[in-house]
Amino acid sequence: MKNLNFNLIPRGSESLLAEALEETPIVLIQGPRQCGKTTLAKKIGQLQGYSYFTLDDEDTRQYAEDDPRGFVDDLPNRAILDEVQYVPKLFLAIKVSVDENRLPGRFILTGSTNLLYVQGFADAFVGRMQIVHLHPLSQQEVEQNGSANFVENLFNGTLKTGRYARLKDNLAERIVTGGYPEVLTRLSYSRHLPWYQSYVETVVQKDIAKLARIQSSEALPQILAAAASLSSQLLNVSFIAKTLKMNHHTVRNYLTILERQFLIERLPAWHNNQFKRLIKTPKIHIGDTGIAISLLGTNAQYLQKNRSLYGQLVESFVLQELKRQASCKVEPYKFYHLRDQDGFEVDIIIELGAFELVGIEVKSGASIDHSDFKGLKKLMDSQEDRFKCGVLLYDGEFCRKYGDRIYSVPIRMLWESESI
Q: Whose CA is closest to 403, among 393, 392, 413?
C-alpha cells in the first residue's frame, strides 16, 4: 500500500455533492467519524464561499443549545455545520431558516451518526434535503483510479476479460489496513493498531455516550468484537448474547446503536416469490475491515493462516468496496444476500431499480470449481429478464466467461481495469 496525503485524494462523492448543492437547500454528508466528511465539506465549501462551524467545539455547541434560532439567524447565507447530531434543537431552527430563504446549497451538514434515526431530524428536513453517504476510502479512491467503477461495469456488461496478477499477500494487507484516511498515512501496521483502538474508544465514550442511553459502555467494544468475528455470517443475536453472557435484548439494542454509528451493518435477505424456502435472516458485516482486525487482535500473516476468518473478511471487504463505489452514483443501487434452506446462496445481490440485478459470489482463494457457480446460475434461471450478470470474485488470475452472463473475476478488478 502506498503512503497517502488523504487531503489530496479526490473523493468519488465530490461531483454528487456539488450537484446536490445546486438544487437543494440542505445537503447532509453522513458517514462514520473520521471518514473524511469535514475534509470533503471544506473542499467543496471553500470553492463556493462557505463558512465553517463545528459543534464539536464546546462554546459553539453551547451557543447553539441555548439559542438555536439566534445561532442560525447569525449564520452567513452559506454555512457548513459539522457534527450537527450533537444539537438536535437546531433542526427546527434550520427548517424555519430554509423556509424563509430557499437558496440552493444554504447549508452543508455533516453527521457521524445515522441522523434519520435522531428524533425530529427527518420530519424537519423532508423535502428540503439530499443525503450524500460518505464511507472510508474505497480501494478505487486509494489507487486514484476514478475512471473505473466496477458496479457500473457489472450492469453495463463491460467486464474486460483477460489475465491479471494475483493479489496474494497484498489482499490481506488491504484488509488489515482498511479504508480510514488517517490510517493510510501511517506506514506500518504497528501504527495502525493504536489508531483503531483509540478510534473505537472515542466513538464509544464520546459519540455513543452523548447520543444514546446505555447501561454499560464497556459492553459495546465486546459486542463490536463479537460482530467482527462473525462478519459476513447470518446475524445470530442469541449466539452473541450467550457467548458474552449478556441479556438478549441488551445485545440487540447495542447492535442497533453500533449500526447507527456505521460501525456494523446488516445486509438484508433478498426476497422473491420464485425462490422457495428462503432464509430471511440478514447477514452482519463489519463497517470496515481495519476495525475488525484491531478488535480481533490479528495481523495479515495470521489472518491468512486462519482461512475461515480470512474468507469472512474478504467477503466483507468486497461488500464494502462495492457499496463505497455505488454511493458515489445517483442510481438507486440496493444490496442483499440470498440463502435458501436447500443450500443455494449468493453472497451479494445488487438491484438497480425494479428491473435489473447482478449476483456476486466471493472466494478468498485462487482455485474455482463449477460448483462455485450453482447459486449464481439458479439466480439467473429464476430472474432471466432481470439478470444482467453473475460474477465469482476470487484471488485468481483470469477474468473469463463460465457460461451465459457468468464470469470468474479477479478481486483486483474491483478497482483496476487493465489486464496484463
A: 392
